[in-house]
């Protein structure tokens, strides 16, 4: 229980959460840009210029992936495999990749590992893994990555196994070697605050560039079973003692949206949620009655926080939440029993996640909780895939850049949302 005590109410998780949701509330929930609210509105000339540019520039596409959940990341990986197959079928390109149809990705815990697999550049210049390959990677290595507690696992040092796996997979690749903007959170025990690994920040300051193998180890370090991971930036100046990103940000959707809306260097015409297409992937809901370990309590707390983020983001999207924001998550109420208990093999788990994708999608409704949608999770993925392809095709006919990927710069930038994070200690 000593490790669990590190995750108590003294953690200053509230600071980053407050700042993120303050931005969402001030700009999108309470009349920002509304003529009836002069205090929050912008001049008409600026408003119309931004609107004209917006329609020409299109929508920024964001992928967000939760921490482990009940399926250890397999539900999200399975969702992405289906989405990539849809993109290949509808685009007519048999080599289409998930990374080619999103402009930014955020992943926490095992979701951060998925983001790294799908968006880190390989030797051929393409992303290292296809979605199917990433799914196989997680199913084959689930026991090494999930790091479930137990006496035997402590003796076998699962942390060392995971770190060896990440070293073999990513080699010397760093955050700079990702093909698109990437955000992967952890919780830093040095500063007692969330820390977000960001490609945008890594390109500008060596003190924010880290090896991808260390990033994956940091965001997936379960504090209740194997303890924190100590790491340093590429230049050795920034030190982090990290635990699981799910402790501070199990659902990174709000952080990703805030980053994009404030990052005018890379997303110059993105002015509000109507300029976004966001896919948020959950990883199944745990059985609350089966919680018997510190790790289980941490997981359930993270899943509760994920639901809060989903509700808040749905509110921020308002009337356009049905078209511009899609959340994929299992529904335990509709599952008629917890089949996760019977999963003994990877094949069993894949079968259960397929059933989860066949469930009716559950949508958050403004001030009214949740409702069961007409479409299944698979239907939603198909429809969203179509929107991604439409945006891809639209960009071929306009001269305005929706995304301007940033290269290394000698001077720090102040527009990245990751500057909300407290800097880790330098030594």
Question: What keyword list fits this structure?
Answer:
427 residues, alpha/beta, 8-stranded mixed sheet, two-stranded antiparallel sheet, 17 helices, 44% helix, globular, disordered C terminus, PNPLA_dom, hydrolase activity, Patatin, lipid degradation, EC 3.1.1.-
Structure description:
This protein has helices at 2-5, 13-29, 44-57, 74-91, 110-119, 131-146, 151-155, 158-170, 199-204, 212-219, 246-249, 253-262, 294-317, 321-324, 332-335, 346-357, 377-394, and strands spanning 60-65, 104-107, 182-188, 193-198, 229-232, 239-243, 276-281, 325-328, 360-365, 369-376. The protein is an alpha/beta fold and 427 residues long. The strands form two sheets. Strands 1, 2, 3, 4, 5, 6, 7 and 8 form an eight-stranded mixed sheet that branches. The chain has a two-stranded antiparallel ribbon with strand order 9-10. A hairpin with a 6-residue loop joins strand 5 and strand 6. It is globular. Mean pLDDT is 79; it is low at 1-14, 28-54, 149-157 and 409-427.
Largest sheet: 8 strands, mixed
Helix and strand run? HHHEHEHHHHEEHHEEHHEHHEHHEEH
Tell me the Rg in angstroms: 20 Å
Shape: globular
- Measured as a percent range, the helix fraction is 40-55%
- List low-confidence stretches: 1-14, 28-54, 149-157, 409-427
Question: What's the end-to-end separation, in Å?
Answer: 31 Å
The tally of helices reads 17
Mean pLDDT: 79
The portion of residues forming beta strands comes to: 5-15%
Count of DSSP strands: 10
Helical/strand content category:
alpha/beta
């Amino acid at each position: 229980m000593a490790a669990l005590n590190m995750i108590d109410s003294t953690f200053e998780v509230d600071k980053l959460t407050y700042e993120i949701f303050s931005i969402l509330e001030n700009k999108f929930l309470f009349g920002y840009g509304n003529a009836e609210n002069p205090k929050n509105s912008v001049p008409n000339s600026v408003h119309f210029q931004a609107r004209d540019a917006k329609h020409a520039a299109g929508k920024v596409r964001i992928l967000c992936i939760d921490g482990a959940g009940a399926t250890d990341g397999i539900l999200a990986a399975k969702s992405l495999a289906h989405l990539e197959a849809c993109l290949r079928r509808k685009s007519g390109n048999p080599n289409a990749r998930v990374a080619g149809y999103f402009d930014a990705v955020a992943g926490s815990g095992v979701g951060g590992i998925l983001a790294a697999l799908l968006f880190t550049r390989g030797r051929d210049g393409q992303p290292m893994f296809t979605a199917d390959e990433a799914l196989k990677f997680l199913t084959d290595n689930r026991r090494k990555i999930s790091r479930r507690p137990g006496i035997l696992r402590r003796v076998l040092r699962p942390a060392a196994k995971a770190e060896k796996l990440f070293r073999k997979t990513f080699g010397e690749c760093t955050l700079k070697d990702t093909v698109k903007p990437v955000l992967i959170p952890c919780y830093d025990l040095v500063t007692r605050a969330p820390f977000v690994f960001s490609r945008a920040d890594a390109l500008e300051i060596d003190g924010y560039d880290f090896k991808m193998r260390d990033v994956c180890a940091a965001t997936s370090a379960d504090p209740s079973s194997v303890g924190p991971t100590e790491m340093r930036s590429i230049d050795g100046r920034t030190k982090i003692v990290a635990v699981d990103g799910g402790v501070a940000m199990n659902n990174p959707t709000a952080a990703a949206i805030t980053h994009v809306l404030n990052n005018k260097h890379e997303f110059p015409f993105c002015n509000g949620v109507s300029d976004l297409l966001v896919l948020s992937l959950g990883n199944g809901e745990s059985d609350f009655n089966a919680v018997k370990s510190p790790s289980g309590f941490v997981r359930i707390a993270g899943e509760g926080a994920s639901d809060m983020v989903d509700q808040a983001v749905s509110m921020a999207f308002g009337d356009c939440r049905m078209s511009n924001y899609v959340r994929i998550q299992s529904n335990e109420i509709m599952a008629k029993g917890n089949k996760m208990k019977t999963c003994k093999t990877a094949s069993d788990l894949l079968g259960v996640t397929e059933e989860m994708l066949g469930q009716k999608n559950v949508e958050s409704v403004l001030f009214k909780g949740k409702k069961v949608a007409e479409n299944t999770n698979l239907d939603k993925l198909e429809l969203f895939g179509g929107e991604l392809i439409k945006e891809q095709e639209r960009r071929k006919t306009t001269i305005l850049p929706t995304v301007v990927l940033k290269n290394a710069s000698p001077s720090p930038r102040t527009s990245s949302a990751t500057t909300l994070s407290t800097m880790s200690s330098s030594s």
